Amino acid sequence: MTGHKKKPTPQTPEATGTTRRSFLQTALAGGAFGTAYLSIGSNMFANASGPITIGHQAELTGGFSSWGYWHNKCATKAAEIINAGGGIAGRELRLATEDSESNPATGARKLRSLIQRNGANFVTGSVHSGVMLASIPVATELKTVYFSCGEATEATGSKASRYAFRTGNDTYTLSGAGAPWAYENLGKNWTMIFPDYAWGHSHHKEHKRVIEELGGKVNDPIAVPLDSRDLVPYLAKIPEETEVLFSVFFGALSVAFYTQAKNMGLGDKMKMYSVAGTIEAIAPADIDGAAEGVYFLENFPRPLAAKNDEFHKEFIKAMEIDDVNGREKGSDRVIAKSHAWQSWENLFLLKAAIEASGWKGKKDDKGVIEYLEGAKMDNSLAHPQGEKILRGKDHSGILDNYISQVRNGAFETIKRIPKEEIDAKLPPRFDFTKEAL
Amino acid sequence: MDLVFALAINGLIWGLIIALIALGLSIIFGLLDIINLAHGDFFMVGTVLAWFIVQSTDNFWLAFILVPIIGLLLGAVIQKLVIVPIKGAAALSIVATFGLSIILQETVRATFGPAPKRLLPPVEGTIPLFGIDYELYRLVAAVISIICLAAFFLFLHKAKLGTWMRAVRHDPETALALGIPVQRIYTITFAIGFGMAALGGVVAAPITTVDFRAGVDILPFCFIAVIIGGLGNLQGTAAAAVLLAFMEGVITAFADPVVARIASLLFMSAVLLVRPQGIFAGATS
C-alpha cells in the first residue's frame, strides 16, 4: 500500500521459498512416497492389523548399565531379525524400551509406562533382581505377561504370579546345577559372601540348602552393603577353615571383591567359586589376574568352542563380539552373555506363543500364557543358548549350564551340566497353572 | 583380639584416605557455602584419570602428580561455569551440583564405559598384620595421605595464598578492602577442593575400583565426617574422618559391618542434636 517493496518475512513465500506450485509439487511427491511406503509396508506385514508392541525394561543407566547395554542390543537385534522375517503373525514387532535406571522404584514406574502409555502387549523385563521383584506386582495388576531376566528365585516363586516367567536360571536352578559339582570337587566347608540385597540373600539361602543337604558345613554368611568400597572388614571375617569361598557380586563390587581378595591372598588359601553374574560384562584379562583360578557357573559360555554350532556363531556375529572373550569389536565392552541372551530369546518365544495361540489382542492373552507354560525351545537362531524348556508349573527355564574356570585370563569350560540332570534334581516348588487369569 | 587391632588399623588407614576427600568438601562449604553433591564424582573423575594415565604410561607416580593438577584445572573451569552463576544461593547449589554430578557420571559412562576396571597398585605384596595378610599398598596409601594432609595444612597456614583463603573465609569484605582478590580466591578454593578429591581418587583407586559410580558410594561417608567435624572446620573434618573410620573398624571386629555404619549414623545424629556446630567446634581453620 505504501508502494515500497515489502521486506520478506519468515511467513512470506519469498522468505520461505515456498510457492503454490512448489507446495503442490512437494505434496504430490510426498503423497507418492507415502503410497509407496504403505504398499511396501503392507507387503512386508501382509496380515497387518497394527504392530504388536513388546516392552523392554532395561538397565540402560545406573549400576547395571554394563549389563543393560547388552540386553538392549540383544532385544534390538532380535526385533530386527523378526521384522526382517515378516514380523509376528504378519504384524510388525514394535519394541518399546524404557530405562529402569537400575532402580526398583523407577523400574516399576517405567514398567507401568511401558504397558499403559506405550501400549506394550507383553514385556521382557529387568535383569536387576530388585527391579524385577518390584515390577512383577505391577505386571500382575495390569494382567501383562512379564519375563524376568534376573536370578532372585522369588520372581518365579513366592513373589510371582501366573503372568511372571523366566527363561533363564534362578538361584534355585543355579544352586542345583553348580553347587553339587563344587561340593564334590572343591571342598565341603563353605563360606558365602554376597551383596546385602535380594539377589545375594536368595543365592545364600539356596546354596546353603544344597550344601547342607549334601552334608557340608556352611559358615555364617557375610552380607556386604552395596555401597561398600573397602571390603577388608568383610574379608577379614572369613573363617580360616573355609575350603570354598562362594561369592556373588556384580559390577564394581565384583571387581573390588576380586581385587581385595586377591591382594589378601585368599585365592591361595581356599577355592573360589561363583556364578557368571559376578563376572558378567567383565573380561578377566581387564582385572589383571584378580579372577585367575576362580570357578564359575555359566549358562552361555563365552568361548564359541564350548558350544560350537551355527546358531551360537550367528549370535556372536549379530552381537559383533569375538568368539573367545565376548568382547565387542571396536570397543572394550564385554558381553553379559549368561543373562543378555534372555532379551533375545524372549522375543522369539513370544513370537512363537502369539503365532501358535492365534493371539489377536489382549483378550487372547490366556492362549499365550498357556503356550508358555511348558514351552519347548529348540537349539536354533531363535534360541542360540541351546535347547530348553519353560516349566509349566513354576514358569522357570531349565537349560544347560557349564562349569568354567579362569585360566590365563580367559574362560575355559570344564564341564557341561545337562538340563535333564538339573530338571530331575529340582522339582517345581510352585504351581502357577492353578491361578485363575 | 588380633582381629580388633587389624580392623582398627585398617579403619585408621581408610579414614586417612577419606580425610583427603572430605577436606575438599569442607573447604568448598566453608568458603563458598556450597553443599557440593558432586564432590564424590570429583573423586571418581580422579580414579578414572589415574586409570587412563597409568594405561598410557604404565607409571602410577606420574598419575599421582598429573591427576591433582588436572583436577585443579577442571575445578577452576567448573567454578566459573556452574558455581559463579548461583553464588549466594545455597539451595540452588544443591540442585546445580546434583545436576553436575549426573553430567560427570554420564560423561564418564559414555566415554570410559560402564564396566568397572582395576588399577594395579604401584607397590604389590602383603605383610602379616594381626593374623591377616594385609595389603602393603594400603600402608603406602596411608603414608601418602598423611604427607598430603600435612602439606595442605602447612599451605593453609604458612603460604600467602593459604592465608588469603583463611582471610576471605573469615571476612570477605575486609579481605577485599585489604586488596585480596576475593573472586580469584573463590575460584582457587573450589579448584583445590576438586584437586584434593581427585588426589584421593588416585590414592584410593588401586584399593577399590575404577567406575563411573565410585563417587556415589564415597560421598555419604564424607558428608558424615564433615558434619561431625563441623561444617567448614578443616581440622575437625580430617579428625572426624579418621575417628569415624577407626570406630567403624573396631565395631566391625565385634559386630556386622552394617552395625558399624549404623553406629556412625547414630553418632552423627547425636552430634547434630547436642553439638550441631560439630564436635571439633572451636578448633580454627
Seen as an oligomer or otherwise, the chain set is heterodimer
The largest pleated sheet of chain A is described as: 8 strands, mixed
- pLDDT below 50 for ≥5 consecutive residues: which ranges of chain A? 1-20, 33-43
| Order of H and E elements of chain B | HHHHEEHHHHHHH
What is the tally of beta strands of chain A?
16
Q: Tell me the total number of β-strands of chain B.
A: 2
CATH architecture of the largest domain in chain A: 3-Layer(aba) Sandwich
Helix/strand order of chain A: HHEHEHEHEEHEHEEHEHHEEHHHEEEEEH
Largest sheet of chain B: 2 strands, antiparallel
Strand content of chain B: under 5%
Mean pLDDT of chain A: 89
| Number of domain modules of chain A | 2
What overall geometry of chain B do the principal axes of the alpha carbons give?
globular
- Uncertain regions spanning at least 5 consecutive residues of chain B: none
- Counting H and I runs of at least 4 residues, what is the number of helices of chain B? 11
CATH homologous superfamily designation of the largest domain in chain A: Response regulator
Per DSSP, what share of the residues of chain A sits in E-state strands of 2 or more residues? 15-25%
CATH topology of the largest domain in chain A: Rossmann fold
Helix/strand/pairing class of chain B, anyone? mainly alpha
Tell me, what is the CATH class of the largest domain in chain A?
Answer: Alpha Beta
